[in-house]
Each structure stands twice: as C-alpha cells, then as structure tokens.
Amino acid sequence: MRALLLALPLFLAAAPAMADDDDGAAAALAAANVPPALKLMLEAAMESGNENDVAVIVKYARSAAPDSADQLVKIAADWRDSRLKKAQAKIRSADFFDLVKGHAELGGYVTTGNTENVGITAAFEIKREALEWRHKLRAQADYQESLGVTTRERYLVAYEPNWKFDDRAYLYGAAQYESDRFSGFTDRVSLSTGIGYSAIKSPAVKLDLEVGPAYRYTHFIDATQQGNAAARGSIDFGWKVAKGISVTQVASAYVQDANSTVSSKSALLTKLIGPLSAQFSYSMQFESAPPLGRKTTDTTSRAALVVDF
C-alpha cells in the first residue's frame, strides 16, 4: 500500500480531467467501496488512457486492499470494454482515408559490397488499419550516378493485405517486385501467403511474426530466368524507447533450393518537430547463390528525413 501511495502524486500530475468517454467508469468508481487512495490512483490512470497503468494499479491493489480487488477488477474491465467498443464504432464510421497513415523519407546512403558509393534514397510506406483488414504498401528507390555512369540502381515495391481473424492472428498475402542489376537481376517477383501472429501487442512494443509458402521468379542480368517454390518468414519489431524515440527491426527470408535471400533493416527514429523526424538505418541483403562475379552480401547505411502523414 505504501508503494501505491508514493506513486499517487505521479499519477495525479500526469492525468488531465476525466474525459466524457470515461464517465461511466468514474461513476462506478465513485460509488464503489474502495479506499480513497486507490480511487484516486485508478481514476488518474484511466484519465491518462494508458491501459498498462490501469493494469498496474489493479495488480497491486489485489495485495494492498484485497477486499476491494474484485470491484477494481470489474471497474477496470468495464472501462476497457467501453473504450474498445467506442474505438470500434469510430473505425466503422470512418471514411476510407481517415484510417490511412504513412510516412515518406528522403536521404543519403553509403554502401559496401557490390557497390561502394554515396548516393540518394527515397521511400514511402502507407498503411490502412481497419477492424478486420490491414493493408500495407511500400516503395523504395536507391540511385547513384558518378561521372555520368550509374553505379547503383535499386527499386522495390511491395503490397501486403492482412485479414485479422483473431485479436492477434491473421492471414497475410504478400507481393513484391524488385529490380537491382548490380546484385545480378533485372526483375524479381515474389508471391507469398501464410499466417501471421502479433506476439507482442502493446502501446510501447510490437512484434509480428509471419511464415508461409512462396513462389519467386527471377530474371537475371545474363538473360537466364528462374522460378522456384520457397518458404517465406518475416519479423516486424517496433519499440518506443522513450517519447519521440523509437527503434525498429524488419527482417525477411526466402528459403529455396536455388538462391535464397535474407534481408533486414534496423532503424532508429527520432522526432524533430511536428511530423518531421530523423532516421538512421542499416540494411543488409544476403543472396546465397548470386550470379558469377557478384558478392553474397550488400549493406546500406542511410540517414534520412522522415515526414509522417
């Protein structure tokens, strides 16, 4: 109980007045037979809108005030249910573009591997999140020219629809087109479908895992062509380290009898002002059996400005 009392000023300082959406929870809390200190802390936690804070208060209230624990659990559960229903109703009534979010980035890079140059990079990503469907579209271009000669030219476009049949599980589809003649191919199309699972789903941390069968068609620079069945797996990790600072790690692998590919991107994003952020990233792409004369691994270090929209 002492720990809860010591935390009380912090909750009160961080919380604004109770919003209209929480009137029902506030009324239930006022009528409950709960110690005043616990009432104030739970009210402050609900005012902040942070479900983790509410869960912490309820957790420690079980041992600090066991006689009031059941009431607090019910009040917190009703508060979460009310918030969820209102959020779902808002999504259902939203226009198509109300649910679209994305970002665009422009910056420079340094490469090692098949090319060792400095150049420019541009990318954008758009995501639309509804109750049952999530759509993700991303594109990226790297280009460098030195003394009139192109020394790097890589393009990528990818689209992924997700059907969420559970709070955490979903079915995914993935279509991706790449062109990178400096890695040995002019065109590569990858198609995949499978199952995904949100292993971690919280305001601060997210972790999505995907696995499924795939098919890849590659047109190499020597005019040979190759089509193979493959297995695809991916990891999408995000962590809000502190206010305005986040870390992401995205990795995918296509494993097949012929050339297998593993790619990853690690990024640090720091808010600057408004929708503008600075991003520092490191990307790696590994080809297990590249064309003759090509290296297996390319790396790219980027510094970019990012605009959220």
Number of domains: 2
SS-derived structural category: alpha+beta
Return the CATH architecture of the largest domain. Beta Barrel
Low-confidence blocks of residues: 3-8, 10-21
Q: Please, what is the CATH homologous superfamily of the largest domain?
A: monomeric porin ompg
Proportion of residues in extended strands? over 45%
Neighbour order of strands in the largest sheet: 1-2-3-4-5-6-7-8-9-10-11-12
Q: On the 0-100 scale, what is the average pLDDT?
A: 84
Counting DSSP E segments of at least 2 residues, the number of strands comes to: 12
State the helical fraction: 10-25%
| Fold-level CATH name of the largest domain | Porin
Order of helices and strands: HHHHHEEEEEEEEEEEE
Termini Cα gap: 44 Å
State the major sheet.
Answer: 12 strands, antiparallel, barrel
CATH level 1 name of the largest domain: Mainly Beta
Overall spatial form: elongated
Radius of gyration: 25 Å
Helical stretch count? 5
Describe the structure.
The chain folds into 2 domains: 2-92, no CATH class; 97-308, monomeric porin ompg (Porin). α1 packs parallel to α3, α2 (23-31) runs antiparallel to α5 (66-92) and α4 (51-64) packs antiparallel against α5 (66-92). By secondary structure, it is an alpha+beta fold. The chain has a 12-stranded antiparallel barrel with strand order 1-2-3-4-5-6-7-8-9-10-11-12. Mean pLDDT is 84; it is low at 3-8 and 10-21. The protein is built from 5 helices and 12 strands. The chain has helices at residues 2-14, 23-31, 36-48, 51-64, 66-92; strands spanning 100-112, 118-129, 133-146, 149-164, 169-180, 185-201, 205-220, 225-242, 245-255, 261-273, 276-287, 297-308. The longest helix is centred in the N-terminal third of the chain and has 27 residues, at 66-92. β7 and β8 form a beta hairpin.
